[in-house]
Design goal:
Layout (H helix, E strand, L loop, with lengths): L7 H18 L20 H5 L1 H28 L5 H24 L8 H30 L14
């Protein structure tokens, strides 16, 4: 019987998904079992946008969430075998969105966590950036592998 070898990128994607889940849900003692829909920040208000503390919080969320989901997109791009970039983006974006929405929904039931639509947007953006970088690196590596190494004459003419 042949043993099937697990693709290393599948292991990395699964491990990174666990990291994302831990960052989004821990500590578990915050879970209270009743919803806090009033805590959801659907859109920032004009007063929020004038607050330096809020803008700093948004900037740190933007960077943190994007960087947290970037590796997921990168590993997913290496796993997907479709030659169509749109398909990669849709599949990885869907995975990133479902994971992000699951975490944000969990946070609705927590006292010290504040779900936000902005978090979902930045998480999906991080996933899609990871896919773009992963695809460009794969494309570059394939071009290098397919490059024909032929010697060029000293006078750089291609005529034999």
């Amino acid at each position: 019987m042949f043993a099937r070898r697990i693709h290393p990128d599948l292991l990395f994607a699964a491990a990174w998904t666990i990291v994302i889940l831990m960052v989004g849900t821990l500590p578990l003692k915050n879970f209270v079992g009743h919803s806090h829909w009033e805590y959801i920040k659907w859109l920032p208000t004009a007063q929020d946008l004038r607050s330096p503390a809020y803008l700093l919080d948004i900037a740190s969320d933007l960077i943190g969430n994007t960087l947290l989901f970037f590796p997921l997109g990168y590993f997913l791009s290496r796993l997907l075998n479709s030659s169509k970039p749109v398909r990669h983006m849709l599949l990885a974006g869907t995975v990133g969105a479902l994971l992000s929405l699951s975490i944000e929904f969990y946070q609705v039931y927590c006292h010290s966590r504040f779900p936000s639509v902005f978090d979902v947007v930045t998480n999906v953006t991080g996933t899609l950036l990871g896919v773009l970088i992963g695809r460009s690196r794969t494309k570059t590596a394939m071009m290098e592998r397919n490059r024909v190494l032929t010697p060029t004459p000293h006078n750089h003419t291609l005529i034999p």
